[in-house]
Amino acid sequence: MTTVRTRIAPSPTGDPHVGTAYIALFNLCFARQHGGQFILRIEDTDQVRSTRESEQQIYDALRWLGIEWDEGPDVGGPHGPYRQSERGEIYRKYADELLQKGHAFYCFATPAELDQMRAEQTARGETPRYDGRGLTLSADEVQRRLSAGEPYVIRMKVPSEGICEVPDMLRGTVEIPWDRMDMQVLMKADGLPTYFLANVVDDHLMGITHVLRGEEWLPSAPKLIKLYEYFGWEQPQLCYMPLLRNPDKSKLSKRKNPTSITFYERMGFLPQAMLNYLGRMGWSMPDEREKFTLAEMVENFDIQRVSLGGPIFDLEKLSWLNGQWLRELSVETFAAEMQKWALNPDYLMKIAPHVQGRVETLSQVAPLAGFFFSGGVPLDAKLFEHKKLSAEQVRQVIQLILWRLEALRQWDKEQITGCIQAVVEHLELKLRDAMPLMFVAITGQASSVSVLDAMEILGPDLTRFRLRQAIEVLGGVSKKEGKEWEKLFAAIP
Fold first, then answer.
1. Is 188 annotated in the active site?
2. Cα torsion for 283, 285, 287, 290, to the nearest 10°?
3. What is the dihedral sign for C-alpha 380, 382, 385, 390?
4. Spatial distance between the Cα atoms of 391 and 475, rounded to a whole number of angstroms
5. DSSP state of 127
6. How many Cβ atoms sit within 10 Å of the Cβ of residue 14?
7. Annotated catalytic residue, options 254, 256, 317, 413
8. pLDDT digits over 249-264, tens only?
9. pLDDT per residue over 50-67, tens digit each?
């Protein structure tokens, strides 16, 4: 009997996302329920955005939750390497096989030519899609252009008519017309594969038997199915999990809900409660109980109990569940968790040097430095009133700095200062115009310890959360403002 093998394949391009943990949890439970294996693979073919720091954060966040894998870049295994950036020769070999079989072709169209093609299609009222121009080139013409060193991509052929039947473990057979499919790029001009080729090749070579992934990938399933057919491989069983949603039913996004796993760790949620809550996203125990452990979830797991309505990720409900977990701890364990969370020696040693020179008694430490031990801080809109900036400019400055900090991967005082400096210089302001706003947003006070040091110590998650809080307290950002400010943000060097 075939051993069940599932996998999670996150991209290390940002903060570790709760959606990644949710899909990882269900893959883990499915594998363990069937006595199988769970693999972690890193999809880092986006050379511009992928970072090793982000990869490490993924490991740390999943392990904090209690999710462990049998094979992966950091633990090894018989099917490595487990980073796609280290598998380039493998993908090249399979792309060449598709070219030789006539299932793929070279395309030399430049980005400008493709833009013009799409603009013309849109003007004619057609859905913009690749027009197949690469297929009209003769073999001699292709060879001549390759010899001349012209840049190219490799695209797959797809049928233009008929229906693709996608077997989904939750929905049964889903019919998707082929005319909705584009001739997918398989190898980019930089020689790296796209998600589609890398995914199929890796899942096959790593013996993946079941693929549980987010339902946003369902519309593109025909391309994956067609690649399995082209290679003559047996495809794994497919399962498209419902997407996590905000309370207003929109797709879960950091604009409306904190989505970084690390945020919940920094806010003082218990990992067991967080995992319990993710387990309740579209799934329930047979006896409908709210509170359960990972071991209990694995023991009772049945993929058919997943409901397709978009599960709501609700911070209030998570907080309630976390409270249930906290209250059932022994007093000793509760105190130990408190200590581990914020009163641990490492964290206190970061804070102590900034507080020591500002107090005359130890009893003054809590009022001065209490914000280091909070999630959010109480904010008074009056403290944001500025001698030089209008109320709109105050919100704009905070929002632009927030966007800049959201993209920051190396979190230290120098980089944080650089982000703030870039924004104020572009707005033709001075650092002293922005710093009082940062003070209030981060500490809830008009003055305290160095706010730049405080931002470094608090870390990216709590810093960004507090800046978002400040913007909300000041009235939020309208759609019109958002569009205008995004243009302004794009122009910041």
1. no
2. -80
3. positive
4. 10
5. P
6. 19
7. 254
8. 888 877 777 899 999 9
9. 888 899 999 999 999 999
